[in-house]
User: Fold this.
Amino acid sequence: MKMSKSFDDILAKLKTVGKKKLSVAYAQDEHVLEAVELAHKKGIVDAILVGDADKIKEVADSIHMDLSEYEVVDVKDMQEAATKAVSLVHEGKADIYMKGSLDSKTFLKSVLNKEVGLRTGRPLSHVCVFEIPGIDRLLFLTDVAFMPYPTLDDKKVIIEYTVNVARACGVDMPKVAPLAAVEVVNPKMPVTVEADELTKANEAGEIKNCIVDGPLSMDLAIDPEAAQFKPGAEKRKIVGDADILLFPDIHAGNLVYKTIVRMAKGVKNGNILTGTKAPVILTSRSDSVDVKLNSIALAAIVAEDMKKGDL
Assistant:
């Protein structure tokens, strides 16, 4: 598969595969329904809208959305709606699970439901994919929203998850940069020690289907010119061309994520939850329609790889 360098590339790839079925929990949310409608019109998904049917119709009417093209399941109670929506994915009646107008705690509770949820017994993590003007590829940031203080073993799992997402987007051998404030190992900075251990685990074949090179500072990870000013940097496996940015903890990741979103111009992003039996879209209520649409597209391309057994 040709490497995706933009969300337009991902959307183009999705035109060559069958529509995915999206199950939306408590669907009476304007931005969510707008994104679902756009994704439907682009031929990405069909959708099952679970929630208060009267409120769903009210929101749909306000955005001129024709509900006759969707299946609406009337469940008034928020928690019951989430349980019903996730069960549709659990039973194979839908491919993707998406958060609607409900709080994250209730949504995640449904994901982890022992009877009808999408748990695998492994940790959950989060991948945010950015398209940034001036960077010639998609950047995969992890974990910026879910796992607060990942251990060394957690980071190995996070890398595995994120590599799978990158490969679904056509990046055959993604380059993974475990980030730190410096690019040398310092025993007084445990993050650098763990980054070095991840690199060695990759070299030993324990971490597969990618190239890991850490510790790396952010500039060496994403800016090829920065290597010219640091002795020996040009000999690294990653010289400003990282695909995956692995953050040491949620603080570092979330600060970078929000800085990019709020300060960079022309940025596009989408994100999914990983470590589940099917792609899960966990967006914020404040996220734009475009972010939600991009997240649906990302989930659909991952669902396609899951269907083929590539993940």
Remarks:
- The first strand starts at residue 20 and ends at 25.
- DSSP finds ten helices and eleven strands in the chain.
- The first helix runs from residue 7 to 14.
- The mean pLDDT is 95.
